[in-house]
Specification:
Order of helices and strands: HHHHHHHHHHHH
Structural class: mainly alpha
Distance between the termini: 80 Å
CATH architecture of the domain at 7-95: Alpha Horseshoe
Shape: elongated
Helix content: over 70%
Length: 219
């Protein structure tokens, strides 16, 4: 005797499996089955059903977005990007898909940076900004990666834009202080060190030490 599902997710899975069995294969049923499977944590199964939904109806933006979300959760960012882009080609006004695509590029950039692939990280941070230019954290990350790459003058512009969007972030002030120091603007670097402190942050100790050797901290 078949056991009766107890959880809402299991009920949803059973409902939509039954709908496909009785009513035949359809985009709606595949999409909804994928959603139920994803809620149950069965990401591989969910992705396969979302993929089937896109096969049945290639111009279904929701199916592409759902597949993208599953791939994102799996950490398969390159595949997620392709699906988000497909969703946005079909539904350019989908604000959530734009934000999710930006976040995917951002995560891909972070992964590339951790692996030491700075050039690739810079490309992906710029892509994140292209899709979500209002997100201060993306500009900050781009600036910090630029500093590490030795592109401190460009970093200053990225970090200043981040502060325009989020003026009170102490991490951004600290990063801007580092970029300005690298550019030889010690007065500006001190200003950002003080701004970092005023906003509850702790400036980079090695930066403060190096700055102190160049000029005393302004009062």
């Amino acid at each position: 005797m078949t056991s009766i599902p107890t959880s809402a997710a299991e009920n949803g899975i059973s409902l939509w499996e039954h709908a496909i069995e009785v009513g035949g294969n359809s985009t709606v049923s595949q999409n909804n089955l994928g959603v139920a499977l994803q809620k149950a944590g069965r990401l591989d199964d969910a992705a396969s059903h979302f993929a089937e939904a896109t096969r049945l109806e290639p111009r279904n933006a929701r199916a592409h977005a759902n597949l993208a979300n599953a791939r994102f959760t799996q950490g398969r960012y390159a595949e997620a990007i392709l699906s988000y882009e497909a969703a946005l080609q079909l539904d350019p006004d989908n604000a959530k898909a734009r934000r999710d695509l930006a976040k995917t590029h951002f995560n891909l950039a972070n992964s590339a940076w951790r692996e030491g692939w700075l050039d690739q990280a810079l490309i992906e941070y710029r892509e994140a900004i292209r899709w979500a230019p209002e997100d201060a954290s993306y500009h900050r990350a781009l600036g910090m990666a630029m500093v590490q790459k030795g592109q401190s003058r460009d970093a200053v512009y990225a970090l200043e834009e981040s502060l325009r969007l989020d003026p009170v972030n102490p991490t951004t002030h600290d990063a801007l202080a580092v970029a300005l120091f690298d550019c030889g603007d010690y007065e500006g670097a001190w200003r950002e060190v003080q701004a970092c402190r005023q906003r509850g942050g702790t400036p980079t100790a090695s930066l403060v030490e190096a700055l102190s050797r160049r000029m005393p901290e302004p009062k």
